[in-house]
Specification:
Elements (H helix, E strand, L loop, with lengths): L1 E6 L5 H15 L3 E6 L13 E4 L8 H14 L3 E7 L1 H4 L8 H14 L5 E7 L7 H4 L3
Parallel strand pairs: 1-5, 2-3, 2-4, 4-5
Helix pairs in contact: 2-4
Amino acid sequence: MIKLIIGKKGSGKTKLLIEKVNSAAQTSTGNVVCIEKGMKLTFELDHKVRLIDAEEYNIKGYEVFYGFVNGILAANYDIKEIYVDGILKIGAKDGNKDIAGLGDLLQKLYKQIPPEVTLIFTVSAEESELPDEVLKFS
């Protein structure tokens, strides 16, 4: 399952994500992973959460991100929830938001990810900016 937390910058998306991640760390029957660009959430998340810095692994672009997610799922079958803060920053092309590419990524992940795994993304954009391919996951 894929879910989106949508809103403009400063609207509280990351705060909501932190609450969801920490709640999942306490209640999930499997492992919880959080991927972000930079390590801003280090002290905000429960110690049970596997925090991954996209920059440390040079994850730039949606294709690389897609491969990375499949790799971590292949390496650990116990992952039940993956949270991603700032997917538009991770998938940016030449420093610009790639909203069309996000739709393609979400569709590929939807087809590939096992049904028992939930992915939750923060998307820093207005709903009016997003195409239907993205909004159908919100």
